[in-house]
Design goal:
By secondary structure, the protein is mainly α.
Length: 84
Amino acid sequence: MLPDASVWRSSARYDHVEKLTASGLAWEWLRRNEAYDQDFEAYAAPGADQAALTAEIRQRWRLRFPGKSRDRTPDRTRLLAASG
């Protein structure tokens, strides 16, 4: 997933960054990372060993999953998906 570079200088699109927590800022950076996106695609692929991939993603990207999340969507893969 390539970001839309045509508006990268638009400061209005990044006004929210000033109010982000450390984890929010980390997410803004991570979701734009092509290697992370590839890892997520592997995780979401049909037949993927999600338990093993979760461990790899946790280690590689230093992600933490401190509590069991509640499923609010029928598509559980969206829990790790990059937005945008």
